[in-house]
């Protein structure tokens, strides 16, 4: 049997501890599958005394991840520190420069510096693998890079953030407010103390742009992603979506258009009988549309120590088997510029909720505003008796009532203009809610 | 750029023609992703004159696939002839012996001779790849072999035959009989003129045993699979399943038990809100349960020229990148014997339909038969007024009526004994129907 693959791991949080434990637990299976052993020989973390539930005896300990990255007696550096800059970036660069392969779960690092790091890895002919950076335990990067190698992908979309999906699921199932669900998610450890990164869509955007680069052969460009989070989603919207046969999900969508690549993250109404609508709780799912295969859907755990470790170990196994390919499939130098399709030209159906003073003429004014922009309405719902009562228990006339408009396919530009026009008419008394609909 | 990978294709049916067309169509993407071109240089097929909608000009033509397999100027032999023996087997053996990598979509060949062929491939250090043999365009073999390399898999199951799923879907949606749906599937090209292989479960069994070998590191052993098809499924069963909150699917299930590996293919009642129940029409889906990742589900096209070609090309791309690993993940010599868990010890819930003469005491006799075997019943349904009328429009007393029994978890052995006992009581007038329930 060939020499062992010597692994150094920087960062011993939940994922790091799982990697150490699983590599030991599955060592026989892995050795059989890879033709050589995969052995952790060194680790770097701040606190030497913390009990992580794993045996670190016999491992070399580094306080500085950069020193570990440069250590001559490791073959692969596993970066589980996190953060787009700082020690994570420095350590990864150091390892690549030293001719070591790198495995990372760091989506921020790859989304911001993926291309530069890919150049570095390709120069040294080592691997830079990041399966764990997107959709936790789902092997979606391997699927896109290798499993669909012969496909021209036209669209890749999915539920890529378990925190948001958990919150939206609970809001629906238990008719709770966004705030209440967020608090419960924090108590249960599904959301961070500062949840901004997850609930405002940035986490999804990072993952999406990595997938887009792989799927379309373009540069990773986090700046090209339109991002909207789920903070504005109201219990009323969730209820209304249900009534209309939809469910609200935070989707990341990257698709080819005629003029470029559209990348967007926003709350989306999807038909409640679609596969993506059925993905509940912290589960992630990715849907891929491509010319040869047609449509493929992968669903599984988007987070969690062991699930994420599963992806880290898959990357290590590929490296142990000697597989080194360009990090983004095609060589970094060949990646095209991603042309950002401005959100204004996005086409689709829309759900628009306008809260108006309950006066004669209010609904008519809204309908006119949309008609003037040439937008065809599928329905307009003014459910005063029940839904308005939720906003104003007295149900008195003149109190604000929500008017919901569902449109046929139109453009973002037209919707924005129609909403502005409706506001100018003077009836709208609250910030309008606009949710995009994906019917396919 | 490295030398082109020269491919010889034997068999130019739907899949073969798609492979030729797609390799040409995606040649730029593939060259970028693999670092070298993949070029079809020779083909073997019987009829030189047939119009296949592809340009075969400039390709070397062989009438004999074995001669192509032995040709010195190809690097990879793609076998798309089909059949477990005959020219397919001979050609694949010839190619491997000549030190050429082989890609095949032939499930029967791999299910019957996979291990011997793997030994041959490993001896010559060439690839033997068969992604296209299971679940069409879904990259499930890559997922199990590579994506979940660090997992101990406990269960792999799925809808692996599009023909059966199409028939069951139509039976449910349109309340049609099995015979009528089969005929329509044949007209639409979803079922063969001789549909035995699909509808009696053998096709699913072939695919399942390949997955089991990969997932559990055991030999491919088609003889170890318990097989039951969908011929006996009645419109009544479909209706009753729906009433009870289930859907009937032909599932292949391979799972570790304490004493061995259970491999079984049979119609199964699954909860109608489970992900697998939602897979309709010709779509395939595979669910994997494993220690690190938890649960993973892949859904996509199980057949079709382009979708299957997508998998063939993914295998070619891996070979072009220089990836050669043992065909079943671990080396063939290390594969354990698969210990066939006899179906008698299978445990689970059951749906049993017994058609009895409508006489006092019939239902009581059935209940007693099950109670005597210690089987707990979740429900017993004797729906005379409506369902019996379907069997006997006159609805007269004494006419046969179906009695449906749903059990809690018990063993196959107990069910078989209870059914025999009920028959012995003399009330049962038709062949009993037994359908296993998977509640997880």
TrEMBL record, chains A, B:
UniProt key word Metal-binding: no
Which EC number(s) does the record attach to this protein? 1.1.1.3
Main enzyme class: oxidoreductase
List the top taxonomic levels of the source: Bacteria, Pseudomonadati, Pseudomonadota, Alphaproteobacteria, Hyphomicrobiales
**SUPFAM superfamilies attached here?**
ACT-like, Glyceraldehyde-3-phosphate dehydrogenase-like, C-terminal domain, NAD(P)-binding Rossmann-fold domains
Query: Which terms does the record give in the GO molecular function aspect?
Result: homoserine dehydrogenase activity
| Pathway(s) the chain acts in | Amino-acid biosynthesis; L-threonine biosynthesis; L-threonine from L-aspartate: step 3/5; Amino-acid biosynthesis; L-methionine biosynthesis via de novo pathway; L-homoserine from L-aspartate: step 3/3
Official protein name in the record: Homoserine dehydrogenase
Going by the UniProt record, its keywords in alphabetical order are:
Amino-acid biosynthesis, Methionine biosynthesis, NADP, Oxidoreductase, Threonine biosynthesis
CDD domains registered for this protein in UniProt: ACT_HSDH-Hom (cd04881)
> What organism is listed for this UniProt entry?
Pseudochelatococcus lubricantis
What's this protein's family per the entry?
Answer: Belongs to the homoserine dehydrogenase family.
Q: Metal-binding: present as a keyword of the record?
A: no
**PANTHER family (alphabetical):** HOMOSERINE DEHYDROGENASE
List residues of the ACT domain.
351-440
């Amino acid at each position: 049997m060939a020499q062992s693959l010597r692994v150094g791991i920087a960062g011993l949080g939940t994922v790091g501890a799982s990697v150490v434990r699983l590599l030991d637990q599955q060592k026989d299976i892995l050795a059989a599958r890879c033709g050589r052993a995969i052995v952790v020989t060194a680790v770097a973390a701040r606190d030497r005394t913390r009990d992580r539930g794993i045996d670190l005896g016999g491992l070399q300990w580094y306080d500085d991840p950069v020193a570990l990255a440069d250590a001559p007696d490791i073959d692969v550096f596993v970066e589980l520190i996190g953060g787009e800059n700082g020690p994570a970036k420095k350590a990864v660069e150091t390892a690549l420069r030293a001719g070591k392969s790198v495995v990372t779960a760091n989506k921020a690092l790859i989304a911001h510096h993926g291309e530069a790091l890919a150049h570095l890895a390709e120069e040294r002919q080592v691997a830079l693998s990041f399966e764990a950076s997107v959709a936790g335990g789902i092997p979606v990067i391997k699927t896109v890079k290798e499993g669909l190698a012969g496909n021209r992908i036209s669209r890749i979309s999915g539920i890529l953030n378990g925190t948001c999906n958990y919150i939206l699921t609970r809001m629906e199932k238990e008719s709770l407010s966004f705030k209440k669900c967020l608090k419960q998610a924090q108590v249960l450890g599904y959301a961070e103390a500062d949840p901004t990164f997850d609930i405002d869509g940035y986490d999804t955007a990072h993952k999406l742009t990595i997938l887009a680069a792989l799927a379309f052969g373009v540069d990773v460009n986090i700046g090209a992603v339109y991002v909207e989070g789920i903070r504005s989603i109201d219990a009323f919207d969730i209820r209304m979506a249900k009534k209309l046969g939809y469910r609200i999900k935070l989707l990341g969508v990257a698709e080819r258009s005629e003029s470029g690549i559209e990348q967007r993250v926003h709350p989306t109404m999807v038909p409640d009988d679609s596969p993506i609508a059925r993905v509940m709780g912290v589960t992630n799912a990715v849907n891929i549309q491509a010319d040869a295969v047609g449509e493929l859907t992968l669903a599984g755990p988007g987070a969690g120590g062991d699930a994420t470790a599963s992806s880290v170990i898959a990357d290590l196994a590929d490296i142990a088997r000697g597989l080194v390919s360009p990090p983004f499939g095609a060589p970094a130098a060949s990646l095209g510029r991603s042309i950002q399709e401005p959100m204004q030209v996005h086409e689709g159906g829309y759900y628009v909720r306008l809260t108006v003073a309950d006066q004669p003429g209010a609904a008519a004014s809204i309908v006119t505003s949309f008609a003037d922009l040439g937008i065809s309405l599928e329905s307009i719902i003014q459910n005063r008796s029940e839904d308005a009562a939720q906003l104003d228990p007295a149900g008195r006339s003149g109190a604000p009532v929500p008017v919901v408009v569902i449109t046929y396919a139109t453009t973002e530009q037209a919707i924005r203009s129609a909403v502005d026009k409706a506001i100018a008419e003077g009836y709208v008394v609250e910030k309008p809610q606009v949710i995009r609909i994906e019917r396919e």
